[in-house]
Fold this protein.
Amino acid sequence: MGPAKPEPDIDARPVVDALLAQALAARASDLHIEPMAGGYEARLRIDGLLSVAGRYPSDVGKSIVGRLMVLGQLLTYRQDVPQEGRIEWAQRPAGGGAQDGKLMLRLSIMPTTHGLRAAVRLPADLLAPRRLTELGLPPQLLGHLDRFAHADTGLLLLTGPAGSGKTTTIYALLEHIAAVAPGLSIVALEDPVERDLPGVTQIQVSPFGQLTYDRALKSMLRQDPQVLMLGEIRDVATASLAVQAALSGHRLVATLHAGTPAGAIARLFEMGVEPYQITAALFGVMAQRLLRKSAGAGGGGGGYSGRVPVAEMGFMDGSVRQAILARADLDALSQAFSRQPGYMSLRQMADELIAAQITDGPEVRRVLGP
């Protein structure tokens, strides 16, 4: 009995092209190639939820991941470390023919117990609205954001879980600032950069590498910026620098891990930011979520298509300032925000969307809880 013949190479190019085309046609934000005990599964994230797009034997699944790594110029022989790269994919029109342009896709590879897992992020500008007026936010909230766009200083915080549309809102706000105040120096520190913003200098930081948020922010403050965007305030050092920057005449917009405006204030307390610094630096806090829109009139059939934001925003006024200076607890801070003229909570805005048959109760409960 002779030696075993090597397995023939599998050409995964048509499979990868078909999966990317399927993701694009379905308006998916992400494509996952997931290794499992019995093979591989391709999943698409559509309107925030994952659905299965295909199942493959292990050898085919490994070839799909390998092809993605080649496209992303990653080290295919390294199976034991995470890797990240970018793919320039030539999009082809339906029915074949000439190329229909190129897309830049973000690729992340992670080793698991069953093999390498691949995640491909499709360009945000294919799905996300670019203008503030296209976000679907209520007029009063848009008014607060426009007021920040015309302000001279202050810190605006956006809160919400991953996938709640924070980056889309921030990008639209930065583009709005660049449009209404041309000539400003606008710098964005991001992890990672989601898409190119005209009129904005974008810097990709590495929270666990050399160019961290706090190091990048400290350096950028010496380069005469007027508007700064921080992808996330995730530690005490970055929080302190952000507040100091706002106090010294800069305008900042950043995300913070918190559920509500009151929760964001409590988080700043936990990070050691003094109450008088918060009241002097903070412009406002906006909490945001995304709800799937009901498909068809009245949402019949329980189907969904697309998503709509719900948001609540609190800003600095006398009542909130007093609560912060008194280091009020979460309930007292929430009450101070709720007393502001026209204030609407996430739940209240969601109830209005249900009444307008834009979404439904099950979806609201899924996102906001019972």
In short: The mean pLDDT is 89.
